[in-house]
Amino acid sequence: MRPFLRNASLLTTLVFVLAGCGGGAGSETAPAAQQRLRQSAAAQPGAALIVLNGARANYSISKTADGYLVTDNRGSEAPRTVAATARLRFSDISLTFDLDGVPGQAYRLYRAAFARTPDVSGLGYWMGVLDRGYGLVNVAQGFVGSAEFINLYAGATTNSAIVTQFYKNVLNREGDAVGQAYWVNILDSKAASVAAVLASFSDSPENINATAAVVQNGIAYLEAGVAYDGMPASFPLRAAYHQRVFAGGTDYLTISGDCSGYAAFSNALPGAGSFEGGSALLAQTSVSVGLTTCYPASLGWNSIDYFDGSDALLGHAEPGSEYDVSTGEQRSLPAAARIGDQGIYATQARYASSAKQGSPGKRVLSYALEADGNSRTSAILKLTAVHSDASGATALTRVARYRIGSDGSLAQLAVDETYSSGVHLLYTQSPASAQPAALTVTDTLPGSGAAAQNGQTLTVNYTGWLYDPAAPGFKGAQFDSSSGRGPFSFTLGQGAVIQGWDQGMQGMRVGGKRTLLIPSSMGYGTSGAGASIPGNAALVFEVEMVSLR
């Protein structure tokens, strides 16, 4: 089970005042527990990563006075001594003996929440979350909101029952009278949330001692986003892109956004030509657009990319409209990239025509390689072109998304265009591949009073839908609503909610209503959330601000 951070119903993470387990072996004082968990909420320093070439079974590991001795039984690598805090990446698994740092915290919390041994992929994911600075209580909140936790504690309908089950599931014993009363009072008085109490049980000295024997041979996990045996180490970006650009064919896409209609993107076979006085290979694309809700009803244009013999991009032209000349040394996509890689691969001086008169603007081309759900053989390649004028103002942002295979295949999924006029056009093969280009915030009712800032507590009503470019208002299937449950409260800018909320709620005023279009990267990412939010799903929220303090 791999639970998700910030569950789909956006359960609140209350401000916590933590104390240690009251009574019994391994108890600690309230101030000690407060200080311990404040420290655990801080960003963790990066641990030393040691990469080994073989599978875990090929190595023997023994404890020494200085750490751990790692010996390659095949004799291919020299023995080495590593610190207890090091993380060892084998070809099939990763391992660490860091019981006091993030790995130990993540392991104990996972085991405490679900009363079972963590699965290696889920554990690796949550270690990464803690590494990025999310506090232990925030991660515990994600566990508390998961379906597995809800099912496990379905019979615990009172705070007393929850505490009783925490003692059994986490500490494997009945709660003593003093400790039981202490924690029930903490929950009854709302001095701490259920997630905060779970985190305190998990990281208590009693639980640390109880789990020490279980992890004495190391904590095994799979790193999120790392390629192991059976996964492609990288994807051939440059070869895949050029194979597609230089092949004939047409993509027929549906247009949504501010206008609806259809479009055909036709690639011609490459031809020889010249650019800026030198020989070049021309890749030509013709675009034909038909609109059903906007004027003019039909549009069409041609674009040409010029490459040299080494596949470097020399320039770009849209005859009669735009003429761009590459500058600098970087003019090509990387030959290969791994999921998570991104960067600028070309910068061009942008002119109004081939006469190159007047002050040029700029065209910046960048790439990003993202996970394709849980696929091991494909990824999502995002190519972004940002056109700016001579003043630096953005005139057009065009984002093209492709599915790239480890075999070098490349299929276009969507094209997302946003113009300086505010017009937004989204071309897709299917709603499932649609993504808004960026977080979009629209105030449908401005509200009054002070504007929301980080650190303030917001109380809101909301409804959430899956983003569907073919649906009215982009509202696809509804997956959540506060209606019937009452308003939801959270602290802005603390990572208690998805990134699209933390950024999208900035500046909102009491009484106001706001619509948020949230890309999947600012929502629940490639993992999704439960059965109602699939991986790579963009989201739409309508939010009403009830109060602010």
UniProtKB/TrEMBL annotation:
Enzyme class: isomerase
Presence of keyword DNA-binding: no
Domain of life: Bacteria
Domain PPIase FKBP-type residue range list: 455-549
Cross-referenced Pfam families: DUF4214, FKBP_C
EC number(s) stated in the UniProt entry for this protein: 5.2.1.8
Keyword list, A-Z: Isomerase, Rotamase
GO molecular function: peptidyl-prolyl cis-trans isomerase activity
Catalytic activity as recorded in UniProt: [protein]-peptidylproline (omega=180) = [protein]-peptidylproline (omega=0)
InterPro entries xref list: DUF4214, PBS_linker_sf, PPIase_dom_sf, PPIase_FKBP_dom
Reported function: PPIases accelerate the folding of proteins.
Family listed: Belongs to the FKBP-type PPIase family.
Name this protein carries in UniProt: peptidylprolyl isomerase
